[in-house]
Amino acid sequence: MRKILIVLMPLLLTACVDDSVSYYADGGNGNHALTIHRAQKHFWSSASSIELIMQRLPDCLRRIELTEMPADDVEIELLSGGDNVWTLRAGKEMWQVETQTCTMYQDVKGDGGELVGVFRVDGGKLVYEAAVLEPAPATEPAAAPAPAPAQ
């Protein structure tokens, strides 16, 4: 019995889900990023803790625990309010952070800004999908007036 417990102990201590994905605000060089980290603490639990890691190096690097969500049902919208102000929205929950001074605001100000993308689970893995901005519909050129009848 003792040998079985020793063999099974690592399974009891490991989590089923532990992944993260980043949005790079600086185009991908890694100095300015918002990362969502999802970790399932126990394999028997369906909940996962969700954290935000915000960085704007060298001035800002901070980890903030946001909430708990079902591990397979994580969907968090990322909105940009400009001036390094970011809003994260999951259902009715909202968090607003600012990467200039590495601050998390107590209350969300305004509507959050423009949708940048969504952090979500796809195929069991946490992914980031950029928002698709649709171009304005092209207007049809006005029809040329019919020529006046000849007299």
Question: Can you offer a commentary on this structure?
Answer:
The protein contains one helix and ten strands; from the N terminus they run αββββββββββ. By secondary structure, it is mainly β. It has one domain (14-130). The strands form two sheets. Strands 8-7-6-5-9-10 form a six-stranded antiparallel sheet, with no helix packed on it. It has a four-stranded antiparallel sheet with strand order 1-2-3-4, with no helix packed on it. The longest helix is centred in the N-terminal third of the chain and has 12 residues, at 2-13. The protein starts with a helix and ends in a 21-residue tail after the last strand. 17% of the residues are buried. The mean pLDDT is 85.
How do the helices and strands line up, and which of them pair or pack?
Elements: H1 2-13, E1 18-24, E2 32-39, E3 47-56, E4 60-70, E5 75-82, E6 85-90, E7 93-98, E8 103-105, E9 114-122, E10 125-130
Antiparallel strand pairs: 1-2, 2-3, 3-4, 5-6, 5-9, 6-7, 7-8, 9-10
In short:
This protein is mostly beta strands and about 150 residues long. It has one helix at about 1-15, and strands at about 20-25, 30-40, 45-55, 60-70, 75-80, 85-90, 95-100, 105, 115-120, 125-130. This is Lipoprotein.
